[in-house]
């Protein structure tokens, strides 16, 4: 099962979308807090709760609390989506770059302008000229380079086949990140250490929120086509009608 959020309207008004592994909408609940997921889980029977093998999500603290209260053996079932973890580390790299760029010498600052995209990818996917440019940037921007290296190391761990050694891999990564000169990366390391159980579950069971993200994209498109929904309940009904895969046989 997957749980994710989608904006109902501008201004941080959200709907929680609960879906199955095939991307079928199971339920939509208001907001994106603890009760958004807890309310749905309380509607399930003991047998239905036991049948949930994994619950894929981002690191939303409310969702985590709800699952740990209402889902049996939640610590073995909660799986933190790979791409949300990658996004968090990518944001650390980008914010560090933004902080470090103004401190460069004038000429280096000019040459580094417009190179944000180079920090977003692995160098093995770049052309030779871009690899050289990134290498130069890493020499100029030491803190950003540290964060980029840690981001790439984390990606490498995710890419490895599952074994119990992955726990040690992550613990080594956490140790390295905790020694980083950048406070934001140290904070990211603390978060990953705290949530390591869910990262390992995601790797072990090979689950992600990919289908949930695809469903959210469809929901956003539905909202655009409808030119917005004034009524939250109509919005939820519209989503369930189109993407709930309801049995329409009468």
TrEMBL record:
Keyword Oxidoreductase: no
Residues annotated as signal peptide: none
Residue ranges constituting the Transposase IS204/IS1001/IS1096/IS1165 DDE domain according to the UniProt record: 3-237
Keyword set, alphabetical order: Plasmid
InterPro entries: Transpos_ISL3 (IPR047951), Transposase_DDE (IPR002560)
NCBIfam families on file: transpos_ISL3 (NF033550)
Protein name: Transposase
Species for this entry: Klebsiella pneumoniae
